Amino acid sequence: MRILVTGQAASGLFILADLLRRIYGLADLNSASDGPPRDSRALAAWIGDGNFPEQGLLAGHYEAEEELLQACRDQGVRVLCMIRDPYLTFEVLYIHANGERGVPAVPGSSCLKGEELDSPVVADFIRDVFSRQLGITARWQESGEALMVRQEALVTRPEQVMEMLAADLGGMEGDVLTGALDEFLDKGVQGSVGNPLSDSRLPSLVICGLNEVIPQAFFELGYERRPCAPEAVMNDRMRHFSRFIDLYNDKQRVFLVGHGKSGTTWLHMLFFHHPNAAVVAERRLFEHPDENEALLDNLLDDAWFESWFRSSSFGVTSPEQTDVRYELSRLMSDYLLYRALAVRKTAKGFERKEPITHFSEKIALNTEPDARVTIETLKKLYPDAKIVHIVRDPRDVAVSAMFHSYRNFREKHERNWITDFVDSVLEGNNDNILKKQAVSAYFKSHARAWNRIASIFHHRGEALYGGNYLLVRYEDLLQAPQEQVNRLFAFAGLAHDEPLVAEVVEKASFKNLSRGRKAGEQDSSSFYRKGVAGDWKNYLTPEASRKVFREAWELMRQFGYE
């Protein structure tokens, strides 16, 4: 069996090639020391000279030249051509070129690096380079000599694609096929899946440019032309939002709340790795970071909002509209959630192979007013939501916050008492009394904030949400992660069988999040600094801690912190 797999850049042809090599036990001609020619006409001569082995597979970007077609016919080389949504293919090329996914630029797309999508360079790339790449795929379709395989079908329905290929290429051994597909699925390969949240990241100008160069062969294979006029893009986006509301409005909302540096990010990552959860973090809807106005403040202002309903150009006064402002605020919140999720098309984003049943959102706060307005407003906007409140020993919270500030100051090359104090401690010198006094005042302010925020979330959360409120201690997550994650997912109503929980715990472990360090191995420049409990003891004595955290002591005891 001789197979040539071709297609344009970023079409996924090497994914298909890997599958077929394993299923049929074919030699990898791409790895040969001398290697086959990369030019289509040279490849035709190479094949014509009998160089293509009986049990071999070659993958590459080749044009449908007549010489190559004839050589494949004469030597019995079966040609498969991968085809992919051209709009998404262009997105992938652009993302790769700019390194956002840690993947080197695909050959030919390096000119896109650092360019804005609406730049003349991008327009020229679409017109000259990308159109030529699309033409290569289209000519294979028009030639009738290649079996066309849609990348989206391979990703979402691999069993059906393999069944189609088996009918054309010959039988596939069941066990080998099953093993190859399992390995393929385990890699989490993603593609276009027709998800209602698959909103384009491309501006209308780029879509219009692509529409001018996409060959008719793509549309004959089922791909749809995207609207490119600004008003058409907006209308299409709103249609997607309507579908989002219809499909996802009844999904369970889970809000992960807590004082900043208490472990909200860890909670967020645990839900992130659950296959049935879509997650977002800190959308700043209700809180007031740096004293700026929160996004929904005006919508939640009675006088401002109700003025909409009190008069009209005809002088008609409308009746009282109870809670309409919260309905509108929820609609706006959901639209922003939809937009936040719509552009996430990778394995690290929204698209999942399992159905989405839950939306999880992280909210980390540092001021009492933000905590109060957030918990009260969430109850009015999402009365059926579940609240997970994570608490952490406030002494460790203060230390973590201090290192967070230390990292930011160091990145900006700023020096102050925090950088001086942390540097001295890291060097083993902790004798400066003035610095200790500054630390004491700093810790007192954190004790006050932690006490008020944790108290509001805990007491108002219990009162407002009852059984839909769950308190989790950071320290318990550290000590018994599988037990606590099982408890978390059971509370949220998510699947929580033992293998799934173990997998999620491993993916969200400190070692993975910190890229290899064990808990306790400190890196002061990392967001995931140390991952331990009780680190405050390296900065304050027990006696000093009782003094500076005196205001929070009663609540600390309630949560088990002595």
The percentage helix is 40-55%
**What's the gyration radius in Å?**
29 Å
State the secondary-structure class: alpha/beta
Spatial order of the strands forming the largest sheet: 2-3-1-4-5
Number of β-strand runs: 10
Number of helices: 24
Q: What is the averaged pLDDT score?
A: 82
Describe the structure.
This protein is of the alpha/beta class and 562 residues long. It has helices at 13-24, 40-48, 66-75, 86-97, 120-143, 151-156, 158-169, 174-186, 204-213, 216-220, 230-248, 264-272, 302-310, 324-342, 368-381, 394-411, 417-426, 433-465, 474-479, 481-492, 498-507, 510-513, 542-548, 553-558, and strands at residues 2-7, 27-28, 56-59, 77-83, 146-150, 252-259, 277-281, 358-365, 386-391, 469-473. The protein is built from 24 helices and ten strands. Strands 2-3-1-4-5 form a five-stranded parallel beta sheet, with helices on both faces. Strands 7-8-6-9-10 form a five-stranded parallel beta sheet, sandwiched between helices. The longest helix is centred in the last third of the chain and has 33 residues, at 433-465. The protein starts with a strand and ends with a helix.
